[in-house]
Amino acid sequence: MTSPAANVELVRAGFEVFNAGDVDECLALMTPDIIINLTELPGPQHGREVWRQGFEMMKHAFPDLQAHIEDIFGARDKVAVRLRFRGTHSGEFLGFRPTGRTIEYVSHEFYRMTDGLIAEEWICSDMATLFRQLS
Question: Which domains can be identified in the chain, with CATH numbers?
Answer without folding.
Answer: 4-134 (3.10.450.50)
